[in-house]
C-alpha cells in the first residue's frame, strides 16, 4: 500500500486536501526527528507544488503504476494536466527519462502491442498469442519498441519507498490504508479521537 492509496474515491478536492493535510502534517510533526533526508525532501517538494500538481501526484500514486501515459490521464477536477505533470517532473516527484523498456510496454494494451508488432514481425506473431509472448517478441525488435514509444509521452512516480514509510508511520502497519479514513468520512467507521504523545509513538 502507498500513502495516498484510495484518495481517488473522494470526489471533492477540499476533502482530498483535508485528508492529505492531516496525514502529512501528522508524520512530519510526530516523527520529524527520525525522518531521513529523502523523506524530508519529499515533504518539502510536495508542499512547494501548486494545488493542481499536488492533486495529480496524489491521483497517480493511488493508481497501479509506476508508469503512466499522459494521453490516458483524465481528471476533470485538475486543470492543465500536462502543465502540472511538467511541474512535477521539474521538482522531481515525477520522472520522464530512462524508463525500462519492459515497464514501458506494459502500459500498452495487448491490441496496441499487436498492431505495432505486426507491422515489423509479420506472420511470426498472431492476434491470439498470449500477451506475455507478444511483449517478449516486441522487446527483441527495437523497431517495435521505438514505434510504441512514439505513440505517447510517459511519466513515472518517484519517492514510492518514502510514501510507503509514511504509511507505516501513520497507521502503524501496512495492512490499513487511507480507505479507512474515507470510510470514517462517510460514516461507515467511527474512530475515537485521542492524542498521540511523543513518548507514546510506535517508532
Helices and strands in order, then pairings?
Blueprint: H1 13-31, H2 37-48, H3 51-61, E1 67-69, H4 81-91, E2 94-95, H5 101-105, H6 110-121, H7 131-139, H8 142-150, E3 154-157, H9 160-171, H10 179-185
Antiparallel strand pairs: 1-3, 2-3
Helix pairs in contact: 3-4, 6-7, 6-8
Structure description:
- The protein has ten helices and three strands, in the order αααβαβααααβαα.
- It has a three-stranded antiparallel sheet, covered by helices on one side.
- Helix 3 packs across helix 4 (81-91), helix 6 crosses helix 7 and helix 6 (110-121) packs across helix 8 (142-150).
- It has helices at 13-31, 37-48, 51-61, 81-91, 101-105, 110-121, 131-139, 142-150, 160-171, 179-185; strands at 67-69, 94-95, 154-157.
- By secondary structure, it is mainly alpha-helical.
- Mean pLDDT is 82; it is low at 5-12.
Task: Give a brief outline of the structure.
The protein is mainly alpha-helical and 203 residues long. Helices cover 53% and strands 4% of the residues. Strands 1-3-2 form a 3-stranded antiparallel sheet, covered by helices on one side.
Q: What portion of residues is helical? A: 40-55%
Describe the main β-sheet briefly.
3 strands, antiparallel
Number of strands: 3
Low-confidence stretches: 5-12
- Give the spatial strand order of the biggest sheet: 1-3-2
Q: Separation of termini?
A: 19 Å
Q: What order do the helices and strands follow? A: HHHEHEHHHHEHH
Amino acid at each position: 500500500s502507498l500513502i495516498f492509496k484510495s484518495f481517488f474515491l473522494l470526489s471533492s478536492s477540499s476533502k482530498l486536501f483535508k485528508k492529505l493535510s492531516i496525514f502529512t502534517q501528522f508524520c512530519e510533526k510526530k516523527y520529524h526527528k527520525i525522518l531521513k533526508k529523502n523523506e524530508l525532501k519529499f515533504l518539502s517538494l510536495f508542499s512547494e507544488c501548486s494545488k493542481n500538481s499536488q492533486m495529480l501526484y496524489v491521483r497517480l500514486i493511488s493508481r497501479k503504476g509506476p508508469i503512466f501515459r499522459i494521453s490516458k490521464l483524465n481528471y476533470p477536477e485538475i486543470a492543465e494536466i500536462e502543465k502540472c505533470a511538467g511541474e512535477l517532473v521539474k521538482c522531481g516527484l515525477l520522472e520522464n527519462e530512462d524508463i525500462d523498456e519492459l515497464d514501458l510496454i506494459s502500459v500498452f494494451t495487448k491490441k496496441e502491442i499487436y498492431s505495432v508488432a505486426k507491422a515489423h514481425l509479420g506472420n511470426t506473431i498472431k492476434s491470439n498469442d498470449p500477451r506475455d509472448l507478444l511483449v517478449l517478441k516486441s522487446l527483441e525488435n527495437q523497431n517495435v519498441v521505438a514505434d510504441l514509444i512514439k505513440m505517447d509521452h510517459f511519466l513515472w512516480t518517484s519517492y514510492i519507498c518514502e510514501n510507503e514509510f509514511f504509511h507505516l508511520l501513520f497507521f502503524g502497519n501496512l495492512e490499513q490504508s487511507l480507505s479507512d479514513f474515507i470510510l470514517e468520512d462517510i460514516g461507515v467507521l467511527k474512530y475515537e479521537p485521542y492524542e498521540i504523545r511523543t513518548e507514546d509513538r510506535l517508532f
